[in-house]
Design a protein that fits this description.
Layout: E1 4-8, E2 15-18, E3 24-26, E4 33-35, E5 59-63, H1 67-87, H2 89-109, E6 112-116, E7 122-124, E8 133-134, H3 137-147
Parallel strand pairs: 5-8
Antiparallel strand pairs: 1-2, 1-7, 3-4, 5-6, 6-7
């Protein structure tokens, strides 16, 4: 799997994806060019230690799954189970069990990514840095106060 970095554009918040070897990335929506610090913090497939977008060094790890899609799947599953429960209570429980099993399989299959607390850049395909821990709400609030970004 090749390495890539996905981050929100500083001007319009649209998603920008760049390869680690590139020195700059243009936003597909507003065309703003962002300089990428390709001077050594990350190398192809290497450890992520400093963000190439904002130069901060605090990251968290999470499964590589689209949060909005996950929310919609939860809402859809809840709606379907509620509708099924109104007529066939037992099958609503079976449906929710199937959804939980599918969720467990997805959780095991999806890779982990590193995410920058400062700018929200997502690092895919890099070796996980053992210093990166799961999301910490306190650290996120500290960075949100400093940067105005809810990463």
């Amino acid at each position: 799997m090749s390495s890539s970095i996905h981050f929100p554009c500083p001007d319009c918040a649209s998603g920008v994806t760049v390869l680690p070897a590139e020195g700059e990335a243009a936003c597909p929506a507003c065309r703003k060019v962002t300089r990428i610090g390709a001077d050594g913090p990350v190398r192809e497939g290497g450890l992520v230690s400093r963000c190439v977008v904002c130069a901060r060094d605090r990251f968290y790890i999470q499964k590589d799954f689209n949060r909005k899609l996950g929310l919609w799947l939860v809402l859809l599953s809840a709606g379907v189970s509620f509708a099924v429960y109104a007529w066939w209570g037992f099958w609503a429980i079976v449906f929710l069990g199937g959804v939980a099993a599918a969720d467990a399989l997805l959780y095991r299959a999806l890779p982990m990514v590193s995410v920058c607390y400062g700018c929200g850049a997502i690092y895919r395909g890099f070796t996980l840095n053992p210093d990166h821990q799961p999301f910490d709400l306190h650290l996120a609030e500290v960075y949100e106060k400093k940067t105005g970004h809810a990463g």
